[in-house]
């Protein structure tokens, strides 16, 4: 071991002496470099070397290489031999390769090496690094994406990038990240061709015969179809595709295709309906069509959760637009046609949503309908007492209908205590006790709380 380490150190002395001679490193720094390299070499050659030993050695050489270049630039040294210039870089490549032979499954280490190759513009080493990284980690979708981007951006090779995505999806068919990035590739390719066409048009180029079908995005649509066949579509996945498509030139047809195809596959997802409604409203600026989509969604998905999401959607865009998105009569019609009446709990939940979002007029009309539909349920009358202005006469009628409900009785007595004078209120209490409405009134003080 000592002989191998000594051989390497002696081999690097020529480079170190040259840097000392040119004033890039001081004699003391050169001694420290030799010492540190010796320590690292011994660590790598021991029987139980660790991954951290390789990483620390690589990091040291990277810092040393940066310091060397900074000082060469500062001193303006142009007399450095080619061997001295690249010896350190070759050593870093070697260390990465040795570490990756041992830790083939470490994707972070592969990415670190890939970034180093890019920074040194080592195209050949970069290509080999991608090939080996994917060979040993075919399930690492992010490595496939990086490799495809390298083919597209650095090598300008769309066909190779497509081929990489095809291979990647054989190993990772369920990776939504790969599908989205493959979709992005096809959209970017059309954008690139669009710029080329624009340039040719500016030059009055005659060969523009296929301009009509230029923005069909045929391959991108195929990719999207394959993606939603392989994945259970959700609103978040749909939004990821929409975000990519929005950046494309003349993307209206592509976006509409995405929404319409999504609804064919997942017509039972209200979030997808509302995404289409939002696109129609904000991007296409077609308010009428947006309302029509919402009404269709409410008919296709007649549930309480659907209606609550529509209410929140309407409230959100009322804030953005500065005017109501859905008029009150439309909201009321949706309420009346919905399944909100199927249970008292559901109707109360929906009424609470209407109240919280400020749809007071709609809430009052819907509440009246609920009271009519459920005459024997005190919950709706209690809701009216809590959230609307009610008269003493209405409260008296409610208490007579539900004499055993302490909450309604308490509300009645509080209003009565405020509106009636003392003799009238005492008479009311006496009358209630005679009728057996409540069996015990423990304390009363004019204007105070009434307890049972």
Shape: elongated
Nearest-angstrom radius of gyration? 37 Å
> For the residues shown, what is the average pLDDT?
83
Our count of helices gives 22
Count of strand segments: 0
- The secondary-structure element order is HHHHHHHHHHHHHHHHHHHHHH
Largest sheet: none
Helix content: over 70%
Unreliable sequence segments: 440-452
> End-to-end distance, in Å?
92 Å
- Percentage of β-strand residues: under 5%
Helix- and strand-based class? mainly alpha
Give a description of the structure.
By secondary structure, this protein is mostly helical. The chain is built from 22 helices and no strands. The protein has helices at residues 2-21, 27-45, 51-75, 82-102, 107-119, 123-136, 141-154, 158-171, 176-202, 218-230, 235-246, 252-265, 270-282, 287-300, 304-321, 328-337, 344-356, 360-373, 378-387, 392-401, 406-419, 422-434. Helix 11 (235-246) packs antiparallel against helix 12 (252-265) and helix 20 runs antiparallel to helix 21 (406-419). The model is unreliable at 440-452 (pLDDT under 50).
Summarize the structure.
With 452 residues, the protein is an all-alpha fold.
Task: Furnish the topology, listing elements before pairings.
Blueprint lengths: L1 H20 L5 H19 L5 H25 L6 H21 L4 H13 L3 H14 L4 H14 L3 H14 L4 H27 L15 H13 L4 H12 L5 H14 L4 H13 L4 H14 L3 H18 L6 H10 L6 H13 L3 H14 L4 H10 L4 H10 L4 H14 L2 H13 L18
Helix pairs in contact: 1-2, 1-4, 2-3, 3-4, 5-6, 7-8, 7-9, 8-9, 9-10, 9-11, 10-12, 11-12, 12-13, 13-14, 15-17, 16-18, 17-18, 18-19, 20-21
């Amino acid at each position: 071991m000592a002989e191998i380490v000594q051989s390497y150190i002696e081999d690097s002395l020529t480079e170190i002496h040259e840097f000392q001679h040119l004033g890039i490193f001081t004699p003391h720094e050169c001694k420290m470099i030799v010492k540190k390299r010796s320590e690292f070499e011994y660590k790598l050659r021991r029987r139980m070397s660790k991954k951290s030993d390789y990483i620390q050695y690589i990091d040291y050489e990277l810092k040393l290489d940066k310091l060397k270049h900074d000082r060469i630039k500062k001193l303006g040294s142009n007399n450095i031999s080619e061997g001295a210039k690249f010896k350190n870089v070759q050593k870093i490549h070697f260390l990465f390769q040795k570490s990756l032979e041992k830790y083939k499954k470490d994707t972070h280490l592969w990415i670190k090496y890939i970034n180093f190759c890019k920074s040194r513009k080592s195209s050949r080493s970069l290509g080999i690094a991608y090939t080996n990284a994917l060979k040993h980690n075919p399930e690492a979708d992010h490595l496939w994406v990086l490799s495809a981007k390298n083919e597209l951006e650095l090598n300008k090779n769309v066909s190779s990038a497509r081929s990489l995505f095809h291979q990647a999806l054989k190993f990772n068919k369920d990776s939504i990240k790969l599908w989205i990035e493959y979709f992005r590739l096809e959209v970017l390719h059309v954008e690139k061709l669009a710029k080329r066409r624009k340039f040719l048009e500016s030059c009055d180029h005659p060969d523009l015969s296929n301009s009509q079908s230029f923005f069909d995005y045929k391959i991108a649509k195929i990719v999207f179809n394959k993606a939603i066949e392989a994945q259970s579509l959700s609103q978040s996945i749909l939004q990821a595709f929409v975000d990519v498509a929005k950046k494309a030139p003349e993307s209206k047809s592509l976006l509409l295709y995405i929404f319409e195809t999504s609804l064919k596959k997942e017509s039972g997802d209200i979030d997808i309906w509302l995404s289409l409604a939002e696109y129609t409203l904000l991007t296409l600026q077609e308010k009428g069509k947006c309302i029509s989509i919402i009404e269709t969604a409410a008919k296709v998905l007649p549930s309480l959760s659907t209606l609550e999401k529509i209410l929140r959607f309407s409230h959100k865009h009322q804030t953005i637009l500065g005017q109501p998105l859905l008029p009150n009569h439309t909201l009321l019609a949706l309420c009346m046609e919905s399944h909100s009446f199927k249970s008292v709990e559901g109707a109360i939940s929906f009424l609470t949503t209407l109240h919280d979002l400020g749809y007071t007029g709609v809430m009052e009309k819907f509440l009246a309908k609920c009271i009519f539909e459920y005459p024997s349920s005190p919950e709706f009358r209690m809701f009216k007492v809590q959230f609307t202005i009610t008269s003493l006469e209405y409260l008296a009628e409610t208490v007579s209908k539900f004499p055993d409900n302490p909450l309604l009785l308490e509300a009645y007595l509080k209003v009565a205590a405020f509106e009636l004078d003392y003799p009238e209120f005492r008479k009311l209490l006496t009358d209630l006790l005679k009728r057996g409405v409540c069996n015990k009134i423990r304390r009363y003080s004019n204007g105070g709380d009434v307890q049972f």
